Amino acid sequence: MNKKATLIVDRDFQIAPVDERMYGSFIEHLGRAVYTGIYQPGHESADEEGFRQDVIDLVKELNVPIVRYPGGNFVSNFYWEDSVGPKEERKPRLDLAWRTLEPNEVGIQEFARWAKKAGTKPMMAVNLGTRSVEAALNLLEYCNLDTDTYYANLRRSHGDEKPYGIKLWCMGNEMDGPWQTGHKTAREYGKLAAETAKAMKMMDDSIECVVCGSSHKGMPTFGTWEEEVLDETYDYVDYVSLHTYWSNASGDTPEFFAQNVDLDEFIRTVVNICDLVKAKKHSKKQIDLSFDEWNVWYHSNASDNADMKNLPWRRHPHLLEDIYTFEDAIVDGLALITFLKHADRVKIAALAQLVNVIAPIMTEEDGKAWRQTIFYPFFHASRYGRGISLTPILRSTTHSTSRHENVSDVDAAAVWNEEKQQLTVFAVNRCLEEKADLTIDMRGFEDYQLSSWEALESNDLLAVNSAEEEKVHPIRKEVSGKDFTAQTPFVLASASWNVLVFTKP
Questions:
Q1: Domain boundary assignment for the chain
Q2: Is there a shared CATH topology between the 3-10+389-503 domain and the 19-384 domain?
């Protein structure tokens, strides 16, 4: 017997407009993300600057509005001055985070140019691990100012007359982590981040700043870190960061599919801490969330750790190259549904990462670029999830997992694009064996008709894509001739991702 779910969608039950930056991503100087990823001179698709056009085409397909750069852990030992100017004069550096050699053939200049070609914008991170306010201000001047001053003129001498105009800046990365170069206590970091953000906004008051939250919710200091950091930085920053990664190393798929229950709690907890500090300071300002690292990550961990220990200081080695399964795509889809439900506070998110490194896009060094399984939920959300997020009133049968009770069999979110007269419902059936009947009660959308239904379905949860074969890809469900009303359920396949698009005739 099929599982049952009812979704009420009402145009008056609005959460918030979806900030397009929710569909951001991340490029770090790690593994093959940059070299043989976005940049590979001599490749058959490379343009005159060495950027792979086949990768740019797939990035454009995803319609990524922002890309976080250059890290990640990499940024905490990043000397930005070494990454600009004539390439023959640039200094190679040891990257302590990933124990590799960074040749600095690609740096700030090249990334800014690549971003423009790819139709995206940089989300720049500054080094608050081994450096200070001064280096951040110099970088900001180089990137954003049109003044007759040293670093603005240095940019001009490097061939870029006009500023890059980068509007979003991260105050370091994961500074609560003992693995981080320049790790600090919450008070130490908070004071440095506050002074850095304050000074940067004195130089350019058009920018926004993201302060580091906990590296993940399992950190022993989670919660107290956010409160202490925000105590120091509240008046000078705009967002606090959240990071999380999911694993199914135990092979417990029902539990894996319940990960977004914890994600929902994580978001609510950080929102409550932000609002606690707001109340303590009697402030009218609201701090929102930047979920600037999220994805499934576990497939490559063992081999990566061995390689970094035994084979250090290589140039762009194969690191963190997880090959994603069908079930990984379902988990990423559930995460996107959760972000949409929190569109009032989750304004920025960055899928970590974009190319080769735990990424939706992979490249063959002597071949083509191709789409991983996780490419597709992100593609669907980015394409159809722009508009106003509606409160999904969902009633569903439930099940229990090894760690969770009363997990809904179906999870869903809805986005209304008023301009396009389009309503999209994203729905996942978490059940591994049973189908689910989803009934949608569309209040205020009675004149809308189903125009398309795309789904990810597979009999093999561990199916993967490759350069040779795309086993996991969207299928278009038959909708013609069917009158789907509030009484007609959509039958969702077991373990499936579904995108139901309704339009006004």
A1: 3-10+389-503, 19-384
A2: no
pLDDT at 306: 86
Tokens 């006004």 sit at which residue?
504
d(CA 210, CA 167): 11
Active-site residue flag, 174:
yes
**What confidence score (pLDDT) does residue 484 get?**
57
The number of residues in the chain equals 505
Tokens for 456, please give them. 């990810």
Mean pLDDT of the chain: 96
Active-site residue (options: 28, 174, 232, 454): 174
Q: Any idea which of 18-22, 124-128, 439-443 has the lowest mean pLDDT?
A: 439-443
Tell me, yes or no, if 293 is annotated catalytic: yes
Distance CA 285, CA 440 (A): 37
Q: How far apart are CA 317 and CA 30, in angstroms?
A: 8
Statement: 3-10+389-503 belongs to CATH 2.60.40.10: no
**What's the CATH code, domain 19-384?**
3.20.20.80
Contacts 24+ apart (CB under 8 A), 185-191: 186/221, 186/224, 186/225, 186/228, 186/229, 187/228, 187/232, 189/128, 189/229, 190/228, 190/229, 190/230, 190/231, 190/232, 190/233, 191/232
List Cβ neighbours of 424 (8 Å cut-off, separation of 6 or more).
384, 385, 387, 414, 415, 416, 417, 499, 500, 501, 502
The answer to whether 149 touches 212, Cβ cutoff 8 Å, is: no
- Cα angle, residue 391 at apex, residues 390 and 394 outer, rounded to 5°: 125
Instruction: Please name the residues in contact with 314: beta carbons below 8 A apart, sequence gap of 6 or more.
Output: 100, 101
Tell me the pLDDT tens digit for each residue of 400-440: 999 999 999 999 999 999 999 999 999 999 999 999 999 99
Contacts of 418 (CB under 8 A, 6+ apart): 387, 388
CB burial class (10 A; 0-12, 13-18, 19+) of residue 87?
Answer: middle
For residues 439 and 429, the answer to whether their CB atoms sit within 8 Å is no
Name the pairing type of β-strands 388-390 and 410-417: antiparallel
The answer to whether the CB of 7 falls within 8 A of the CB of 427 is yes
Which of 28, 293, 327, 454 does the annotation list as catalytic? 293
β-strand partners of 350: 24
Could you count the other beta carbons within 10 Å of the beta carbon of residue 24? 25
Tokens 């077991």 correspond to: 494
DSSP-derived 3-state class of residue 325: strand
Helices (H), 207-312: 224-233, 253-256, 259-280, 301-310
- Residue 479, CA distances (Å) to 214, 381, 437, 452, 482 in order: 45, 20, 16, 7, 6
Backbone angles phi, psi at 456, to 5 degrees: -105, 120
Q: How do residues 3-34 score in pLDDT, each as one tens digit? A: 999 999 999 999 999 999 999 999 999 999 99
Q: Is the pTM of this model over 0.90?
A: yes
